[in-house]
Design a protein that fits this description.
Blueprint (H helix, E strand, L loop, with lengths): L2 E4 L17 H7 L2 E4 L38 E5 L7 E6 L8 H8 L3 E11 L3 E10 L9 H18 L10 H4 L10 H4 L1 E6 L5 E8 L4 H10 L4 E10 L2 E9 L7 H15 L10
Antiparallel strand pairs: 1-2, 3-4, 3-9, 4-6, 5-6, 7-8, 8-10, 9-10
Helix pairs in contact: 1-6, 2-3, 6-7
Length: 281
């Protein structure tokens, strides 16, 4: 299983504004991601933007579902763990998604090969469309975090374009959609961080927080600032929330309790909502 890693030197302390783009510093950090040796994935399913996101082509490609009193919660899962040869993406929006040909075309414009793996209908989550993505240039799974973020924003972009009602259910609706969410998730309440053992060589970081553009890059920066190596596992978008799963290590070993606490504190520091406009710089 191919994975990604980043090891970066500690950065100068300071506050960080929730971003809507990728800073030059973030790109520098991301440039040092490197593939890692395969490792057994943890059996856990969780329930960011310098690349120009192309728009979809034809609204007729989407099959509209019937309206309901309550709009379903959009859900996007980017899974790097379950398939060693491809990045698996699952998209759910109740029973309103059609064949998603528009989304497939938009993803191809990012230089990806798109194979539709399956379509399932679950009474709890609705219709789930699954794609297997590989880079057209290499035929391998996506190993670039900027491209992973572009994939996520492309799917959100097309979902909002062809299902405008989803705009108010997504944090990105305030950026891309016609209608921003009616309420905002309180970062201090929404953020949950847990770290578990994940074999003899690494630990498992599971995080839930309020979603925003650039979140994946902020997480990578916060982790790399304390010289912890990141092995990308899964990144989920569920309405206003984002859920991440990272395999992490320090010098090839699991994180000891003291370092786990340092990592948890560092993430909470970066994810907090600034109290003043000046405090966000």
């Amino acid at each position: 299983m191919a994975e990604m890693a980043v090891t970066a030197a500690a950065a100068a302390a300071g506050t960080l504004r929730p971003c809507t783009g990728v800073s030059a510093r973030s790109v520098a950090v991301l440039g040092r991601w490197r593939p890692l040796a395969p490792a057994a994935p943890a059996k856990l399913r969780l329930s960011s933007p310098a690349v120009r996101v192309p728009r979809a082509t034809s609204p007729a490609a989407v099959e509209d579902g019937s309206n309901t009193d309550t709009d379903p919660i959009p859900k996007i899962i980017i899974d790097q763990d379950s398939d060693p040869d491809a990045t698996i993406v699952e998209v759910t929006l109740g029973d309103r998604l059609g064949d998603l040909l528009d989304t497939m075309n938009a993803l191809k414009n990012l230089g990806l090969n798109v194979n539709k793996a399956s379509v399932c209908l679950d009474s709890a989550t609705g219709k789930c469309n699954t794609f297997a993505l590989t880079k057209a240039s290499t035929g391998r799974k996506i190993d670039d975090p900027e491209l992973l973020e572009a994939v996520r924003l492309t799917i959100i972009n097309t979902m909002i374009q062809y299902h405008p009602e989803s705009s108010s259910q997504l944090a990105m609706g305030a950026t891309f959609g016609p209608e921003a969410p009616a309420e905002q998730v309180d970062v201090d309440i929404a953020t949950h961080i847990d770290i578990y053992d994940d074999g003899p060589e690494r630990s498992l970081l599971v995080l839930e927080t309020a979603d925003r553009p650039g979140l994946l890059i902020d997480l990578v920066k916060a982790i790399s600032d304390i010289n912890v190596t990141v092995h990308f596992g899964e990144f989920d978008t569920e309405g206003l929330l984002a859920k991440a799963k990272f395999h992490v290590s320090y010098r090839g070993k699991p994180l000891i309790k003291a370092l786990q606490q340092v990592l948890s504190n560092s993430l909470r520091y970066y994810l907090r909502r600034p109290t003043t406009e000046e405090g966000s710089f």
